[in-house]
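User: Good morning. I'm curious how XIL would be positioned relative to this chain. Could you predict the structure with it bound?
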Amino acid sequence: ESTLGAAAAQSGRYFGVAIAANRLSDSTYATIAAREFNSVTAENEMKIDATQPQRGQFNFTAADRVYNWAVQNGKQVRGHTLAWHSQQPGWMQSLSGSALRQAMIDHINGVMSHYKGKIAQWDVVNEAFADGSSGARRDSNLQRTGNDWIEVAFRTARAADPSAKLCYNDYNVEDWTWAKTQAMYAMVRDFKQRGVPIDCVGFQSHFNSGSPYNSNFRTTLQNFAALGVDVAITELDIQGASATTYANVVNDCLAVSRCLGITVWGVRDSDSWRSEHTPLLFNNDGSKKPAYTAVLNAL
Ligand code: XIL
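Assistant: Good morning! Here's the predicted structure, ligand included:
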């Protein structure tokens, strides 16, 4: 195959990209994105601050620009993200307790009803665990509404759009030996045992010198899949863009039948949120990097 998306589709998977609405007018960017990928995540446009800037006033202008571009170009869409401690609008940051809990529920209902039946996977909850060795939940205004906030989010999401796969998404959960990975595993196991509706786990996979790729990533993906959920690599970027490491990640996904696909977190290095890491598959001029060829050959 000659594109990443077509190559991934040979095994029933997708190869996706994070898209920024304000870059779609850049023809180099839009040409690569349209050609190479068959799944799209909005890099920021479906987040809470973008979709509900004032309480009760939803705004899908930017989100729909990404969504409509994706559909017009034949791509599926991952929704990102409904409940998160970060990129909350000011009105939500100032809420707590039962008022915040209700606002979270209202937000999930408002966004999911707008896209009902149109989203392949939703990142219902993002980044709820703490970094480091504690294995604890991250302290946040949402966590302070009660430990059950995550399962309430998933139950709300299932009712709002039964057709979407519902994912929990996090970073620094790729290495099986990390406490954060084990904490996320215990939560997903508990949710499956108690019938909390969760369908998938997203591994952001922002690999860098502080949190490098480890070959036990495949074990992690296998162990989560064995709990009865799908897995996905949702925000891949690799500091320095080692071709070998990119190929290893692709092979890890391909080795796990429940690995749905891979999303890279931007098109060119200059589009990356960590552009100084040159972590992506395309150079700033739109040419393919060695990592691109390694990924295409591995798929
Ligand atoms: C990042 C975006 O790439 C940036 O443009 C924005 O300023 C901050 O958020 N984990 C996530 C993503 O789930 O939503 C983040 O995206 C990167 C880390």
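Residues 43-44, 126, 171, 204, 235, 273 surround XIL (CB under 6 Å). The beta strands are 14-19, 39-42, 76-83, 121-126, 165-170, 200-203, 206-207, 230-238, 259-264.
Let me know if you'd like a different ligand tried.
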